[in-house]
Amino acid sequence: ELPCSIRSFSEAAGISAAQVLKxxxxxxxxxxxxxxxxxxxxxxxxxxxxxxxxxxSQTSLEEDLIDQIEERADEEADxxxxxxxxTFLGHVDHGKTSLLDYLIGTRIVKGEAGGITQHIRAYEVxxxxxxxxxxxxxxxxxFTEMRARGANVTDIAVLVIAADDGIMPQTExxxxxxxxxxxxIVVALNKMDIPGVDSNRPMTQMTxxxxxxxxxxxxxxxxxxxxxxxxxxxxxxDTLLTVSELNEYKANPNRDALGVCLESEQQADxxxxxxxxxxxxxLKVGDxxxxxxxxxxxxxxxxxxxxxxxxxxxxxTPVNVTGLDQPPGAGDRFHVLDNIAEARxxxxxxxxxxxxxxxxxxxxxVSFEHFQQL
Length: 374
Ligand code: GDP
Ligand code: MG
Prior knowledge:
Helix content: 25-40%
Strand content: 25-35%
Bound molecules: guanosine-5'-diphosphate, magnesium ion
Largest sheet: 6 strands, mixed
């Protein structure tokens, strides 16, 4: 573990502290046995003494544990079908939020306010006992950021195109994002209630952008919708469920949960509330969680729509989580660990690392250009 004292370095390396001190002195560094040395100094000593020692920092040791969790493969026999996670993408004002409002409002809470929100919303919608998880993001940045950080949660992209407006710059961006993510695209040709709209024009534009509608012999399903009248809503859900069945999304509910934080906030009365989507395994009340620089024991799980308490959240489930010590970032992955001390150590190391990175002026924000090259 580095940085560490000269005493523990010499013990770990199997050489006397006196020899370490002498070597340091030879390099012009006067130190005592309790002084701390960092990775670079340890490497210098190792080179000087011809030592073959493994100089793994604390950070990488801990992240190895996280990597092991990520890479732990499931037995085929443990996998069961899971519901698809669907994200709405498209040009601003083409109706992404309205479509989700319609789907939620008519099926779960009648009369839910449908205003434009700055939040990333994630809800479960039930269609004849079959579920779909919908994610609505305020813009592409959220989608881009999350994908660039390796936390892509989307199985299927619904590309929303207002029939009266057609393909616009952000529609083009959305198409390239969905293609880069390698997820199937279903088009919702929205605002079909507007008098005189002609679906031929946007569908011709689609073809020009490499998306040929299935009714024209291509492989992209186009559903004509209206978030105002409800036109095409059942068809949209059925189409998504069909795409989901074809792709056979699976997960293992009988393992510790892992997934991604969509957003989080600090509330005065309830503390930190984080919105997670579980990607594999089952998250339970009492689980020890680490997520970015945050950690804690899950105090409560609640339904993202109704606020009802939940005892556990299985694969593809969006859930609000309380019990973390600080709000994690959007796109931070979460993992369940065996004990709280381990979780604290990982979280603290990450926080320390990000602070020292900030101090040295290195930024970890990934640019749009970088994303496009991925
Ligand atoms: P977003 O930016 O893609 O989330 O778009 P919104 O859902 O906020 O919708 C933008 C505007 O279009 C709002 O004024 C909606 O009421 C309106 N709108 C959304 N869907 C439809 C639709 O199907 N038909 C009509 N006529 N208006 C719609
Ligand atoms: Mg919106």
